[in-house]
Amino acid sequence: MPVTEQFSNFPCDVCGSDDAAEIDVARGYTNNQPLHVCKACGFVYVRSRRSAERIAQAWSKEIYQHAYTAHVPAVKARQTFVADFLDSATGLKGKSLCDIGGGEGQFLGIARDQYGANVFCIEPSPVNGKALAAQGIDHFVGTIEDYAAANRPRKFDVVTIMWTLENCQSCRAMLVAAYHIVKEGGLICVATGSRILVPFKKPLNYYLSDNAADTHAFRFSANSLRNLLAAVGFSFHGVNRYIDNDILCMVAKKNPQASQEDLHRDDWREIADFFRRWDKETRDHYWNGEAVDTRVVPEAGQKAR
Ligand SMILES: [Zn+2]
């Protein structure tokens, strides 16, 4: 690990405003790292971030090394949920589908084998590239930014970004790159578990962690995700019933006019109050302030692969 880390301060990724308030209760869970909410549009984000390369390295070297695998039932369940939701929203049979950050290709296997999609994967890890090749999944090893900048990248009917947008350095840059590989009138689907302004699904000490804050820099509500998608040229198409589901899964259609659409702002005071209530609920009933190991581990009976 480098001796000194280089951080830069970012404005709001959705609306560009610099005016933000700190979510005061967050530091109690994040090893004193601040989390902010944009006062203009209500987007929740980590202002201070390292380079994209350094964040990617932190994920592969510091977080994923704790035996993370996509082959646990909970991950397979959420991938199946998204494939089924997408199929009901647009019909996947015969459609070209690209998953950005597709990992070992488990989701693409489901989309291909159960729903008849023609699948493609963009994945930075060469190790995962080998796993994709073994399953016969056509793929590109590199980032979405690399692929979008490549000579004549393919364009797809549907592009998916699953549990990835909240973990990159610039959610906006990732969506801008994705925009270039969606066909005119095609769809993007973003799925995230970082949903807010809904009933609490877990104690706050499991939601926030003392990992480096910039490895999970964005926390979406349905409104802020919709606003971000519109800002880069995608019009809202559909969303799952996220109110009682761990997953927020939004589908949007490529539309160059979308950036003219009105923002559906969240009130930043309501966001701050939401986190305060969550903190109180957590401390009153679930957590005495002791450190908790919240690392991702294989579930009982599942072997890491
Ligand atoms: Zn904003």
Provide an overview of this structure.
This protein has helices at 52-63, 73-90, 106-115, 126-134, 144-149, 171-179, 204-207, 222-232, 268-285, and strands at 8-9, 20-22, 36-38, 44-45, 48-49, 96-100, 118-123, 138-141, 156-162, 182-192, 218-219, 234-239, 248-254. By secondary structure, the chain is of the alpha/beta class. The longest helix has 18 residues, at 73-90. A hairpin with an 8-residue loop joins strand 12 (234-239) and strand 13. A seven-stranded mixed sheet has the order 8-7-6-9-10-13-12, sandwiched between helices. It has a four-stranded antiparallel sheet with strand order 2-3-4-11, covered by helices on one side. The protein has a single domain, classed as Vaccinia Virus protein VP39 (Rossmann fold), CATH 3.40.50. The chain starts with 7 loop residues before the first strand and ends in a 20-residue tail after the last helix. It is globular. Zinc ion binds at residues 12, 14-15, 17, 38, 40-41, 43.
